[in-house]
């Protein structure tokens, strides 16, 4: 979403024209009113904001940006839960984990707020979440030390590597509310002869074959500026009628990959061997079952437990798992928007609906598909400025 800059009154008092008959007392009143108004405007700009959407910089505070990555499994999403509405499961939110770690690390007597740029749903993973903190004094440690200590606190609370701070920087953005310029989400659909249960924590297995060209045709309808209210969750109620739901999708594409990396390292996560011939996804592996010669002999082989175990393990190795990666880049996303797009794409890819079904949903003619599971959804990239996005696009073009 575009950053909204704070506006100030920069008008100056207009001096009287020479020879004017305007009473001096009236002029003094106007000059006095101008300075009072200008002082109030400046004071308002430097006040701390309690708005959770983003802090406002002040001349007497120090801001730091935390680059955060996390696996969303077992967490209730990014946003801190109110005590009265806290999940009955007792699971934490990422924001609560980060705020507890930062507060304890800094030895603060009150909670240090960590304001996120994105609000991911329960179970959604993220490689590029940004959290901003504002302190009343400078750090008494280096930013690398702050990162390491926060990670140690998170590890003690959740276990190793589930929520990590990848870096701490001083934001270069001006005194405006923190907003993202663009975001990139990737949804991973697992395809193969059998599901990979371990990789199923980060992807959604669909047993029916997907027609990649039909998916590609449907995604074209999403590109451009549209009102995505039909894909939103809960925004069709009358009280949200005036809410802006127009978004611009910069890119919507599908890529098939094998051996996808699902780590929390943004440099390699999501990478894998791109599959050009999508028919490879459905070819039977030639070595799907390989018998161990040491545990069988011609006619009198005994199927022992160990022998069966080895056969199953070798069958798993022979069966290649492929991933249909749906990649969406936009200037903003509505609640459940990506997951409902995936829910609409599924019957299109399976051949039950035409690609034009996507356009019908956009036009409000038919209902979207149900929300797809969150476990396969990744916040893959967040750009805070247009310059960052342009720079990454230039690098990507050079590597093609």
UniProtKB/TrEMBL annotation:
Pfam families: PseudoU_synth_1. GO terms for biological process: tRNA pseudouridine synthesis. Residues 218-373 form the Pseudouridine synthase I TruA alpha/beta domain. Residues 1-11 have a biased composition (Polar residues). The keyword tRNA processing applies. Keywords: Isomerase, tRNA processing. Its EC number is 5.4.99.12. It catalyses: uridine(38/39/40) in tRNA = pseudouridine(38/39/40) in tRNA. Residues 1-22 are annotated as: Disordered. GO terms for molecular function: RNA binding; tRNA pseudouridine(38-40) synthase activity. Belongs to the tRNA pseudouridine synthase TruA family. PANTHER family: PSEUDOURIDYLATE SYNTHASE (PTHR11142), TRNA PSEUDOURIDINE SYNTHASE-LIKE 1 (PTHR11142:SF0). This is tRNA pseudouridine synthase. The lineage of its organism: Eukaryota, Sar, Stramenopiles, Oomycota, Peronosporomycetes.
